[in-house]
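Annex B. Sample input.
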Amino acid sequence: MNALPVAHEIRDSIDGKPDDCVTLTYDDRFLRRKCLQSDGGLAFLLDLPKVTSLNEGDILCLSGGLTIKVRAAVEPLLEIRGHDLARIAWHIGNRHTPCQIDPKRLLIQRDHVIRDMLEKIGADVREVEEPFVPEGGAYGHGRTHGHDHGHSHDHGHGHDHAHGHAHDHPHDP
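Annex B, continued. Sample output.
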């Protein structure tokens, strides 16, 4: 049995045209190690040193010299427009929701709760299907998977955080 070609390296660009493409949704572009199949049918193993957010246009360099371009898949999104797009964008960002920012519109993954909130603040929202390429964020790609940052906020030792301030004199004048 032949071993799958392995992609260990990602490049922003290459000289010439890639050998193939792999089309992935936004969620599927966040990975470290996974067997994938290119659009042309080539099975390969992506094996990166750490979890990585692949970008539209990234080039995966496979053993044997093949190159595969990453493409953003068409997926169900919400298109948001409105007269105060900056305010709308603030509300989306305040909820740590991945957002693609275009000059006259915003795109987010479909979420009925966010949609209701946006419509209540005056946004025009409609369902669309297109590739999703959200902003990366100031500290990388902004991927949090439900706000779990891989560490606990538990102190690991038991003690009471309540700091009683009971005393026997009144504070009213």
